[in-house]
Amino acid sequence: MKQTTDVELDLAGVGAGPFNLSVAALLSEMPTVRARFFESREAFVWHPGLLLDTANMQTMFLKDLVSAVRPENPYSFLSYLVKNKKFYRFLSAELSCISRQEFSDYLAWTAHQLPNIQFNSEIEHIEFTGDHFAIQTQQGQYRAKNLCLGVGKVPLIPDCAKPYISQRVFHASEIGLKDQDFTGKRVMIIGGGQSGADIFLNALQNQWGQPKSLDWVSRRANYQPLDEAAFTNEYFTPDYVEAFYHLDAQVKRHEIAQQKLTSDGITQQSLLEIYRALYHRFDVLKEEKWIRLLPHRTLTQLRQGTGSDAGYQLTVTNALSQQQETHAADVVILATGFVAPTPACLSDILPLLDLDENNRYTMDSNFELQWEGQATNKIFAVNAGLHSHGIAEPQLSLMAWRSAKIINALVSRDAFDLSTHQGMIEWLTHQPAMEPVSSPL
Ligand SMILES: Cc1cc2nc3c(=O)[nH]c(=O)nc-3n(C[C@H](O)[C@H](O)[C@H](O)COP(=O)(O)OP(=O)(O)OC[C@H]3O[C@@H](n4cnc5c(N)ncnc54)[C@H](O)[C@@H]3O)c2cc1C
């Protein structure tokens, strides 16, 4: 039976994915702040359906939960290496980029030590009483003065595929959750980002059996690399985010569109691995070609074929030929990305929030939502401000910095020193106020 607890919190976290975990890890050194992060899963696991054998991180391991603002915190990646007795072997392995499995293990190691994470506790409902938030979880009810929303994203399924979602048409995030057998099947992957690449490589290496054919469709003009150049990385710095926050909304949209490949491209390492695997199979071993790379194509229609083993008919538009093409598949994997959810537990609070014309939160530079009760109670959100704070928002790169900003705003003091030294790039030059240009009239 659900109980009403008399636990009163200064901060309740909704969800304990990596982003709220970072806030929780930094708060663990501030015992006067009564915080608890509620997580629906029974144990920590990081995007379990996509923890594939060959999948690597896109970000460096030093961009962990805490190091960028508090390297001496016990939950740094370095601390994880030392405490797990693998520091020297990690160095000898010379990993410039670690596996997602290892980062997930680090996150789980942290989550299960932190006293302020409560698993098996889906938040079902949150109500604002005028003074505090009444939080209904599967484990009972709690009172909290402030909230930090960290619910992550949900799979984006193209409309044309929605009626066919099944064991044979599914989102990429499901691939590792069920037993798969692609033996003798025509497999088609839709989506040319990192998840599509990871699944293509695993399928090519017969991770799920030897398919009859393997097609990889991408809307992009080619299988495009993640832009990881030195100056590009400046987009993932506090200096840039602070400058970005104050830009005009239209300029922000343009910047985000321009920067797509700085976060959504495929790592050079994955591309080379795929290219080499293809070369080995089809140019060295001289296998008859059973794969097809199909860039520049957008999925527009999906239909079930007729007959018991007819599979699916996919219509795509080829941006080069400007023609429609049809392809057949038995298994369709939608590596089509993720979108922001509207969490059901917030249904009571949503009417109190200031949302923009696209129903997105409006947030100040400290990731604090603008809303009716803001004068007395704060609501923060992580991974919800791509439009306001820029492309680093959905990435791990600045999570520790963002968490520190949130905590500083929560406690109304600089618990973390976030002042920066001179930046590499001068994004905006502050000029003295200009004289208005005089009119010729
Ligand atoms: C496969 C994959 C690989 C990625 N790799 C990288 C990378 O290498 N580098 C990088 O910078 N970024 C990467 N990202 C992007 C980003 O870093 C991750 O998506 C990250 O997990 C986002 O963290 P989060 O905490 O916002 O969300 P999530 O990890 O989705 O966590 C949200 C949590 O909230 C819980 N929850 C939701 N609703 C409730 C509720 N009502 N009550 C209780 N709990 C709830 C969920 O169970 C979940 O555990 C990757 C994304 C994916 C999908």
UniProtKB/TrEMBL annotation:
InterPro entries: FAD/NAD-bd_sf, Lys/Orn_oxygenase. Keywords: FAD, Flavoprotein, NADP, Oxidoreductase. The keyword Oxidoreductase applies. Pfam families: Lys_Orn_oxgnase (PF13434). Its cofactor is FAD. Pathway: Siderophore biosynthesis. Belongs to the lysine N(6)-hydroxylase/L-ornithine N(5)-oxygenase family. This is Lysine N(6)-hydroxylase/L-ornithine N(5)-oxygenase family protein. It comes from Vibrio zhugei.
